[in-house]
Write a structure and sequence with these properties.
The protein has about 300 residues and is α/β, with parallel strands linked by helices. The chain has 14 helices and 10 strands. About 45% of the residues lie in helices and about 15% in strands. The two termini are about 15 Å apart.
Length: about 300
Protein backbone atom coordinates (compact mmCIF):
# COMPACT_ATOMS: atom_id res chain seq x y z
CA UNK A 1 0.00 0.00 0.00
CA UNK A 2 2.78 2.44 0.86
CA UNK A 3 4.41 1.90 -2.54
CA UNK A 4 1.09 2.67 -4.24
CA UNK A 5 0.82 5.94 -2.30
CA UNK A 6 4.41 6.82 -3.18
CA UNK A 7 3.66 6.27 -6.86
CA UNK A 8 0.67 8.61 -6.67
CA UNK A 9 2.70 11.28 -4.92
CA UNK A 10 5.41 11.04 -7.59
CA UNK A 11 2.73 11.68 -10.19
CA UNK A 12 1.82 14.95 -8.46
CA UNK A 13 -1.24 13.77 -6.56
CA UNK A 14 -1.43 14.67 -2.87
CA UNK A 15 -3.87 14.29 -0.02
CA UNK A 16 -4.62 16.01 3.29
CA UNK A 17 -6.21 13.29 5.39
CA UNK A 18 -6.80 9.53 5.35
CA UNK A 19 -10.39 8.41 5.88
CA UNK A 20 -10.53 4.68 6.68
CA UNK A 21 -13.66 2.59 7.17
CA UNK A 22 -13.77 -0.69 9.13
CA UNK A 23 -11.05 -1.06 11.68
CA UNK A 24 -9.49 -4.37 10.69
CA UNK A 25 -7.65 -4.74 8.45
CA UNK A 26 -8.46 -1.44 6.69
CA UNK A 27 -7.96 0.90 9.64
CA UNK A 28 -4.79 -0.89 10.72
CA UNK A 29 -3.30 -0.57 7.22
CA UNK A 30 -4.38 3.07 7.01
CA UNK A 31 -2.60 3.80 10.31
CA UNK A 32 0.65 2.49 8.81
CA UNK A 33 0.23 4.76 5.79
CA UNK A 34 -0.60 7.73 8.01
CA UNK A 35 2.55 7.16 10.04
CA UNK A 36 4.73 6.70 6.94
CA UNK A 37 3.51 9.89 5.24
CA UNK A 38 2.75 11.99 8.34
CA UNK A 39 -0.89 12.56 7.48
CA UNK A 40 -3.84 12.83 9.87
CA UNK A 41 -6.07 9.79 10.10
CA UNK A 42 -9.76 9.27 10.77
CA UNK A 43 -11.08 5.71 11.23
CA UNK A 44 -14.73 4.66 11.28
CA UNK A 45 -15.83 1.60 13.26
CA UNK A 46 -18.84 -0.11 11.73
CA UNK A 47 -19.78 -3.14 13.81
CA UNK A 48 -18.21 -6.59 13.66
CA UNK A 49 -14.73 -5.05 13.42
CA UNK A 50 -15.16 -4.05 17.07
CA UNK A 51 -17.90 -6.41 18.29
CA UNK A 52 -16.30 -9.57 16.93
CA UNK A 53 -12.79 -9.22 15.48
CA UNK A 54 -11.49 -7.17 18.41
CA UNK A 55 -12.12 -10.14 20.71
CA UNK A 56 -9.05 -11.84 19.23
CA UNK A 57 -5.83 -10.79 21.00
CA UNK A 58 -3.66 -9.93 17.97
CA UNK A 59 -6.31 -7.96 16.02
CA UNK A 60 -7.35 -6.23 19.26
CA UNK A 61 -3.82 -4.99 19.84
CA UNK A 62 -3.54 -3.72 16.26
CA UNK A 63 -6.96 -2.04 16.47
CA UNK A 64 -6.00 -0.32 19.72
CA UNK A 65 -2.71 0.88 18.22
CA UNK A 66 -4.43 2.20 15.09
CA UNK A 67 -7.08 4.02 17.13
CA UNK A 68 -4.43 5.74 19.24
CA UNK A 69 -2.70 7.00 16.09
CA UNK A 70 -5.93 8.48 14.72
CA UNK A 71 -6.89 12.12 15.05
CA UNK A 72 -10.49 10.98 15.52
CA UNK A 73 -12.39 7.73 15.58
CA UNK A 74 -15.96 7.65 14.32
CA UNK A 75 -18.55 5.07 15.30
CA UNK A 76 -21.92 4.56 13.66
CA UNK A 77 -23.65 4.11 17.02
CA UNK A 78 -23.24 5.07 20.65
CA UNK A 79 -23.13 1.36 21.48
CA UNK A 80 -19.98 0.99 19.38
CA UNK A 81 -18.45 4.01 21.08
CA UNK A 82 -18.92 2.30 24.43
CA UNK A 83 -17.19 -0.81 23.09
CA UNK A 84 -14.21 1.27 21.92
CA UNK A 85 -13.96 2.95 25.30
CA UNK A 86 -13.97 -0.54 26.84
CA UNK A 87 -10.96 -1.28 24.62
CA UNK A 88 -9.13 1.61 26.23
CA UNK A 89 -9.70 4.27 23.55
CA UNK A 90 -10.22 7.74 25.11
CA UNK A 91 -13.84 8.77 24.76
CA UNK A 92 -12.96 12.32 23.73
CA UNK A 93 -11.38 10.94 20.53
CA UNK A 94 -14.54 9.07 19.54
CA UNK A 95 -17.36 10.79 17.66
CA UNK A 96 -20.72 9.16 16.91
CA UNK A 97 -21.88 9.84 13.35
CA UNK A 98 -24.73 7.54 12.49
CA UNK A 99 -25.40 6.27 8.99
CA UNK A 100 -28.07 8.10 7.06
CA UNK A 101 -30.83 6.92 4.74
CA UNK A 102 -31.69 8.06 1.23
CA UNK A 103 -35.24 9.31 1.76
CA UNK A 104 -35.71 10.00 -1.95
CA UNK A 105 -35.03 6.38 -2.88
CA UNK A 106 -36.60 4.81 0.20
CA UNK A 107 -40.09 6.29 0.28
CA UNK A 108 -43.60 4.87 0.77
CA UNK A 109 -45.18 3.30 -2.28
CA UNK A 110 -48.66 1.96 -2.77
CA UNK A 111 -48.74 -1.27 -0.80
CA UNK A 112 -51.20 -3.13 -3.03
CA UNK A 113 -49.22 -2.30 -6.17
CA UNK A 114 -45.96 -3.27 -4.46
CA UNK A 115 -47.37 -6.65 -3.45
CA UNK A 116 -48.69 -7.28 -6.93
CA UNK A 117 -45.25 -6.53 -8.36
CA UNK A 118 -43.75 -9.27 -6.19
CA UNK A 119 -46.64 -11.70 -6.62
CA UNK A 120 -47.51 -11.56 -2.93
CA UNK A 121 -50.93 -12.16 -1.44
CA UNK A 122 -52.98 -10.02 0.90
CA UNK A 123 -52.05 -11.81 4.13
CA UNK A 124 -50.01 -9.89 6.73
CA UNK A 125 -46.45 -9.71 5.42
CA UNK A 126 -43.21 -9.89 7.43
CA UNK A 127 -40.00 -9.05 5.55
CA UNK A 128 -36.44 -9.86 6.61
CA UNK A 129 -33.43 -8.55 4.70
CA UNK A 130 -29.80 -9.56 5.15
CA UNK A 131 -27.11 -12.06 4.26
CA UNK A 132 -28.11 -15.66 4.89
CA UNK A 133 -25.59 -16.21 7.66
CA UNK A 134 -26.15 -17.35 11.27
CA UNK A 135 -25.58 -13.93 12.86
CA UNK A 136 -28.52 -12.41 10.96
CA UNK A 137 -30.92 -14.61 12.91
CA UNK A 138 -33.30 -15.45 10.06
CA UNK A 139 -34.05 -18.73 11.81
CA UNK A 140 -35.50 -16.74 14.74
CA UNK A 141 -37.74 -14.81 12.35
CA UNK A 142 -38.98 -18.03 10.72
CA UNK A 143 -39.73 -19.65 14.09
CA UNK A 144 -41.61 -16.51 15.16
CA UNK A 145 -43.67 -16.29 11.97
CA UNK A 146 -44.58 -19.98 12.36
CA UNK A 147 -46.42 -18.90 15.54
CA UNK A 148 -48.56 -16.41 13.61
CA UNK A 149 -51.53 -18.12 12.01
CA UNK A 150 -51.82 -16.31 8.70
CA UNK A 151 -48.70 -14.19 8.27
CA UNK A 152 -46.40 -14.72 5.30
CA UNK A 153 -42.68 -14.01 5.35
CA UNK A 154 -40.20 -12.97 2.67
CA UNK A 155 -36.48 -13.31 3.31
CA UNK A 156 -34.17 -11.40 0.98
CA UNK A 157 -30.49 -12.27 0.75
CA UNK A 158 -27.93 -14.85 -0.26
CA UNK A 159 -25.39 -16.88 1.66
CA UNK A 160 -24.40 -20.29 3.03
CA UNK A 161 -27.48 -20.66 5.26
CA UNK A 162 -29.97 -20.65 2.39
CA UNK A 163 -30.65 -24.37 2.19
CA UNK A 164 -30.75 -24.79 5.96
CA UNK A 165 -33.27 -21.96 6.25
CA UNK A 166 -35.41 -23.40 3.46
CA UNK A 167 -35.40 -26.76 5.22
CA UNK A 168 -36.34 -25.09 8.50
CA UNK A 169 -39.22 -23.26 6.83
CA UNK A 170 -40.52 -26.57 5.47
CA UNK A 171 -40.15 -28.29 8.85
CA UNK A 172 -42.07 -25.45 10.49
CA UNK A 173 -44.94 -25.89 8.06
CA UNK A 174 -44.25 -22.61 6.28
CA UNK A 175 -44.08 -24.04 2.74
CA UNK A 176 -46.97 -21.89 1.53
CA UNK A 177 -46.12 -18.84 3.66
CA UNK A 178 -42.36 -18.40 3.24
CA UNK A 179 -40.54 -17.07 0.19
CA UNK A 180 -36.82 -16.58 -0.36
CA UNK A 181 -35.59 -13.90 -2.76
CA UNK A 182 -32.09 -13.17 -3.95
CA UNK A 183 -30.34 -9.86 -3.33
CA UNK A 184 -32.01 -7.08 -5.29
CA UNK A 185 -31.40 -3.48 -6.29
CA UNK A 186 -32.14 -0.80 -3.73
CA UNK A 187 -35.00 0.52 -5.83
CA UNK A 188 -36.62 -2.91 -5.87
CA UNK A 189 -35.87 -3.33 -2.17
CA UNK A 190 -37.75 -0.10 -1.46
CA UNK A 191 -40.75 -1.68 -3.16
CA UNK A 192 -40.51 -4.75 -0.95
CA UNK A 193 -40.32 -2.62 2.20
CA UNK A 194 -43.49 -0.85 1.08
CA UNK A 195 -45.18 -4.18 0.42
CA UNK A 196 -44.44 -5.40 3.95
CA UNK A 197 -46.44 -4.73 7.08
CA UNK A 198 -43.35 -5.08 9.29
CA UNK A 199 -39.58 -5.51 8.84
CA UNK A 200 -38.04 -8.12 11.16
CA UNK A 201 -34.40 -8.16 12.23
CA UNK A 202 -33.35 -11.15 14.31
CA UNK A 203 -29.60 -10.45 14.37
CA UNK A 204 -27.29 -11.62 17.13
CA UNK A 205 -25.06 -8.58 16.61
CA UNK A 206 -25.13 -5.34 14.63
CA UNK A 207 -23.37 -2.00 14.43
CA UNK A 208 -25.94 0.27 12.87
CA UNK A 209 -28.50 -1.84 10.95
CA UNK A 210 -29.32 0.23 7.87
CA UNK A 211 -32.25 -2.01 6.93
CA UNK A 212 -34.26 -0.64 9.85
CA UNK A 213 -33.95 2.95 8.64
CA UNK A 214 -34.59 1.94 5.04
CA UNK A 215 -37.83 0.18 5.98
CA UNK A 216 -38.92 3.03 8.23
CA UNK A 217 -38.23 5.58 5.47
CA UNK A 218 -40.73 3.54 3.41
CA UNK A 219 -43.22 3.88 6.25
CA UNK A 220 -42.83 0.30 7.45
CA UNK A 221 -42.54 -0.35 11.21
CA UNK A 222 -39.90 -2.76 12.53
CA UNK A 223 -39.34 -5.47 15.10
CA UNK A 224 -35.71 -6.05 16.03
CA UNK A 225 -33.45 -7.86 18.47
CA UNK A 226 -31.88 -5.67 21.14
CA UNK A 227 -28.39 -5.52 19.66
CA UNK A 228 -25.88 -2.84 18.68
CA UNK A 229 -27.42 0.50 17.77
CA UNK A 230 -31.01 -0.80 17.51
CA UNK A 231 -32.15 1.19 20.55
CA UNK A 232 -30.83 4.34 18.90
CA UNK A 233 -33.10 3.71 15.90
CA UNK A 234 -36.25 2.15 17.35
CA UNK A 235 -37.32 4.81 19.81
CA UNK A 236 -40.97 4.60 20.70
CA UNK A 237 -43.95 2.41 19.85
CA UNK A 238 -44.67 4.48 16.74
CA UNK A 239 -41.84 2.92 14.76
CA UNK A 240 -41.82 -0.61 16.14
CA UNK A 241 -40.67 -2.84 18.95
CA UNK A 242 -37.40 -4.14 20.39
CA UNK A 243 -37.23 -7.76 21.56
CA UNK A 244 -34.94 -8.21 24.55
CA UNK A 245 -34.95 -12.00 24.78
CA UNK A 246 -33.94 -14.19 21.85
CA UNK A 247 -36.96 -16.46 21.89
CA UNK A 248 -39.40 -17.22 19.06
CA UNK A 249 -42.27 -16.67 21.49
CA UNK A 250 -41.18 -13.14 22.41
CA UNK A 251 -40.40 -12.26 18.81
CA UNK A 252 -43.80 -13.57 17.69
CA UNK A 253 -45.55 -11.51 20.37
CA UNK A 254 -43.81 -8.35 19.15
CA UNK A 255 -44.66 -9.10 15.52
CA UNK A 256 -48.29 -9.81 16.38
CA UNK A 257 -48.53 -6.58 18.37
CA UNK A 258 -47.24 -4.48 15.45
CA UNK A 259 -49.44 -6.30 12.94
CA UNK A 260 -52.56 -5.96 15.11
CA UNK A 261 -52.15 -2.28 15.92
CA UNK A 262 -51.24 -1.28 12.38
CA UNK A 263 -49.12 1.79 11.75
CA UNK A 264 -49.22 5.38 10.64
CA UNK A 265 -46.79 5.03 7.75
CA UNK A 266 -46.27 8.78 7.42
CA UNK A 267 -45.32 9.05 11.10
CA UNK A 268 -42.89 6.15 10.74
CA UNK A 269 -41.30 7.79 7.71
CA UNK A 270 -41.12 11.16 9.47
CA UNK A 271 -39.07 9.60 12.26
CA UNK A 272 -36.62 8.03 9.79
CA UNK A 273 -36.24 11.29 7.88
CA UNK A 274 -34.22 12.84 10.69
CA UNK A 275 -31.36 10.53 9.65
CA UNK A 276 -30.82 12.18 6.28
CA UNK A 277 -27.49 11.89 4.46
CA UNK A 278 -27.02 15.65 4.10
CA UNK A 279 -26.61 16.20 7.82
CA UNK A 280 -24.35 13.14 8.07
CA UNK A 281 -22.13 14.49 5.27
CA UNK A 282 -21.84 17.90 6.94
CA UNK A 283 -20.72 16.35 10.20
CA UNK A 284 -18.23 14.14 8.41
CA UNK A 285 -16.75 17.07 6.52
CA UNK A 286 -16.45 19.09 9.72
CA UNK A 287 -14.55 16.29 11.47
CA UNK A 288 -12.22 15.62 8.53
CA UNK A 289 -11.45 19.33 8.28
CA UNK A 290 -10.83 19.49 12.02
CA UNK A 291 -8.39 16.58 11.72
CA UNK A 292 -6.46 18.44 9.02
CA UNK A 293 -6.33 21.77 10.85
CA UNK A 294 -5.09 20.12 14.05
CA UNK A 295 -2.59 17.86 12.25
CA UNK A 296 0.38 19.52 13.94
CA UNK A 297 -0.76 18.08 17.26
CA UNK A 298 -1.05 14.49 16.04
CA UNK A 299 1.36 11.68 16.94
CA UNK A 300 3.89 10.99 14.19
CA UNK A 301 6.19 7.95 13.86
Amino acid sequence: MESAVEALLEQGWDFDVIDAHYFYPDGVAAAQVARRFSRPLVITARGSDINLIARQPRPRHLIQDAARRAAYVITVSAALKRELINLGIPGDLVEVIRNGVDTELFRPRDQACAREAFGLGSQPLVAAVGNLVPEKGHDLVLRAVARLDTAQVVIVGSGPEKQRLKTLARDLGLDDRARFMENMTQDKLAGLYSAADVLALGSTREGWPNVLLEAMACGTPVVASDVGGVREIVRGETVGKIVGRRSPEDFALALRSVLDQGSDRERVRSFASQFDWSSVARRYYFLLNKAVTSASDLPVG
